[in-house]
Amino acid sequence: MIYNVTTTLIKYNAKIYPSALKEFEIESIQPNPSGGDNVTIRCRARYDSKNVSINVYTMQGVKIGTVWRGDILRGDATVSIALNNYASGTYTLYFVNNVGQAVAIQKIIVSK
Prior knowledge:
The chain is mainly beta. The chain has one domain (5-110): Immunoglobulin-like, CATH 2.60.40. Helices cover 11% and strands 54% of the residues. It has helices at 5-12, 18-21, and strands spanning 15-16, 24-30, 39-45, 49-58, 63-72, 75-81, 89-96, 101-110. The strands form two sheets. The chain has a five-stranded mixed β-sheet with strand order 1-8-7-4-5. Strands 2-3-6 form a three-stranded antiparallel β-sheet, with no helix packed on it. The chain is globular and about 35 Å long.
């Protein structure tokens, strides 16, 4: 699911290109809401994606951390992250490729 990209462009001042958003798809984030630990992200990449990072942003558009970095090969993939260092609240996860383009965006709720 992709959230309002126009608002996101203004709010987060990130490099978002519609063609980049087609390269990567988030199938699920479980559990969501999350208690913070052992969050599993199922995704699908249309191409090999090298040096992908998952960045955490507040709803005010402030980047507060990177929770994962690595390569995602073409096809289905599963990534595990921990959000236990984050306070209860709603966050946006940005999946960013090696040239700084957001390739996927997903909201997650941390509830402790």
